[in-house]
Amino acid sequence: MIKNIDSVLSSVSKPSWYIGTELNSVHKSKDNVHTRVAYCFPDLYDVGMSHLGMKLLYHMMNERDDLWCERVFAPNTDMEEYLRSTGTPIFALESKDELKEFDFVAFTLVYELSYTGIANILDLAGIPLFAKDRSDDMPILLAGGPCMCNPEPVADFFDVIDIGEGEENLNELFDLYKKCGKNRNEFLERAKDIRGIYVPNHGQKQKKVTRAIINDLPNVYYPDKLVVPFAQVVHDRISLEIMRGCIRGCRFCQAGIIYRPYRQKPVERLKEDAIKLCKSTGYDEISLLSLSTSDFQKLPELADGLKEYCIPRKISLAVPSLRIDNFSKEISDEISSIRKTGLTFAPEAGTQRLRNVINKNITDEDIERSCKIAFENGASAVKLYFMIGLPTETDEDIIGIAKTAEKVVDYFYKYAANRSRGINVTISCATFVPKPHTPFQWEAQLTLDEIQRRQELLKSSITSKRVHYKYHDADTTVLEGVFARGDRKISGLIQAAWRLGCRLDAWSEHFDFSKWQKAAKECGIDFYSYTARKRPFEEELPWSFVDSGITTDFLRRECEKAYKEETTPSCAEKCAGCGVNKLCKGDVCP
Amino acid sequence: MTRIAFSKKGYAKYISHLDLNRCMQRIMARAEIPIWYTQGFNPHPYMVFSAALPTGICGERELLDIKLVDPPEYSVLLERVNEKTPDGISFLEIYDSDRDFKYIEKAVYRLEISDDNVPMFDEFIGRDSIPVVKKTKSGEINIDLKEEMQIKKTGEIDGFTVYEIIAPCGNDRNISPALLSAAYEDKTGQKSAVSLTRTAFLDNKSVIFR
Questions:
Q1: Residue A367 maps to a domain
Q2: Same domain as B143, residue B184
Q3: What is the total count of domains within chain A?
């Protein structure tokens, strides 16, 4: 345990982020376990504690009697300053032990802009960032999470990278560690045989790593408790994952590919899990989590079942991630009967042509129909998600975004039950970043100047005062693009930028693009060679060795269809032959 | 009104007042305590704390009022709820009380400091005045802690010397002893040399308020 914990905690503005005694946090005796894992989220507590994946795996790992998994988050600036000025190492929240004492230091990587967090946490732990610089008595560095479908930008840092669904193979990994009697070399060599495990810096490079996939999602582990933070965090509620994967096949969407196949959980199991979680946490809100909640076939049945328990206990139900084309009166009723929320839809593109290109199969009629239902039921705020910079996009498509939003305003005055309240339409606009393992993985990303030009064009196309436009900084998007499709050279860039002071890059108040540019110069890296270059289909990509289960042929076919503005039906309608079923046992697809 | 006496110790002293409020709601929900909700547009469980305990100060007997619908036996309730509290928070007693928190005027605190610091601390509190700046919502005010607080040495335990502080803790005037420890730590450059615990509340006749 680190010294002077009281002076650490009384020196920072949010001490409850670091006390580690939250409801349902797991405390064991370190002498009674074989394996200790320091599980790190490379961003602040309030973001990390909102992430379901980390909570799920934390509790799953702690189900093992031979293992104690503890949490570590990136320190806030005041904490970092304190740790550095006093020479105090960063510590795991539960035991307050420093990270060097652990068998594993594991990271969950959910978004690319958290990568400097790895460098910062390891530095504060006194652990060298690069695997080649670490001695054998150091902890084994493990990484996982959706970003690891292209592990190369951070592969030089880690000893073991888990690609795919951790519920499937983590227990096997820790069993092996025990079997090897903590013999590091033997462990690393044999870990390569576990599906989904990539060992990037030990022996010969693996030619192929196949993503780990849960075959039986209805019966897979789901926690019956969640750590309940004292301080308010971004998602401060029960997250109930109702299904994994998505039937839709939007061509820009990485999650839609890397969480395949589409697997729903049975309503009975979900109800049981929800009630257990309500009882163990005391939360007053449940959020149904999935990539596209309205595609859940038994949503009304599930909502009815949950309401029966929730209403008398004043627990509300949030249903995010709804689609425009199957948003129904029933779903609207389910939401509004518990709590009235604003409505959020994602048309993604402003014209039918471009929506066909990206395979977002919704029409203007869908939008009108959904708005009609929502406005007739009293909604007075609508948020619309769009992207700019999608492949084949023209100025007409950009202007179409403004037109779509203004049409929503018109629908309000046409259908709303109470017009006097007025309507607020918010356009939230991200810039398209081509992601690995998607049909657009070969595409070029917009340059900074072009992003800004198109943002301005959109801004000037909006005439209604009812429409508000929000957009992301163009420069973070460029960096995200570099990391997403990066190769091993990027690890040097991450270290250089961290040395220049880059931290918590996902926060606009901390993000400093000029430092990243300086770091790129030092490392001889040209951002645009990663982002703005269109790759030929034949090119060997840094992530080609990762087998997501979805064939390159399928991705290429989808990309070519995109150019022809042809759509592909959802998995529920017709199998598009992506190949994932070959990696699964039995009949998993819908 | 149902009154709960509880303690907040150990790491739990770092839970802020706002967060404690939310934490208590969740404890009640976990223990399935039938708590009464306010009847407004946005109903919330009715809970009133005696006085906010500053973050970093332990509480030996803090008070919380709630309203219950069909209250079960208090002894059963106490047992049930204590199974559901996080580390550092314990419910000590549940009882009926109609005496409003507005009758609280002062609070008693225990200050502990390691013996080697005692000469310096005695010199500090022995001064004629201890001027500090108190930040309030309406700005900063200058106060003299010597006038506001009674401080006396009461004993020793395990290498620590114990002092008792009585300071205003009412709706009209509230002076936290953290001002004293912060002023001392500032003067001496020591960090967390002092630990503080609120032990009781007093009414206008200096009788313990319960």
A1: no
A2: yes
A3: 1
Asked if B195's CB is within 8 angstroms of A21's CB, the reply is no
How many beta-carbon pairs below 8 A join chains A and B? 70
Name, in order, each residue with C-beta under 8 angstroms of A329's C-beta and a sequence gap of 6 or more. A373, A377
CATH number for the domain spanning B119: value is 3.30.70
A326: phi then psi, degrees, rounded to nearest 5: -125, 25
Dihedral, CA of residue A418, residue A424, residue A425 and residue A427, to nearest 10: -170
A589 domain residue, yes or no: no
Asked if residue B114 and residue B40 are part of one domain, the reply reads no
Per-residue pLDDT band at A338 (split at 50, 70, 90): very low
pTM: 0.94
Phi, psi of A103 (to 5 degrees): -75, -40
- In chain B, % of residues over pLDDT 70: 100
Report CA-CA distances (Å) from A134 to A88, A157, B206. Answer: 20, 10, 64
CA neighbours within 13 Å on the CB side: how many for A315? 27
Is A21 close to B88, i.e. CB distance below 8 A?
A: yes
Confidence (pLDDT) at A222? 96
Using one digit for the tens of pLDDT, what is the confidence trace for A13-64? 999 999 999 999 999 999 999 999 999 999 999 999 999 999 999 999 999 9
Where residue A41 sits, what CATH number does that domain have? 3.40.50
Question: Does A225 fall in a domain?
Answer: no
ipTM over 0.90: yes
Q: Mutation test of the interface with chain B: which of A3, A8, A12, A19, choosing the one with the most B Cβ atoms within 10 A?
A: A19
Q: Is residue A10 part of a domain?
A: yes
Domain that holds residue A78: 5-210
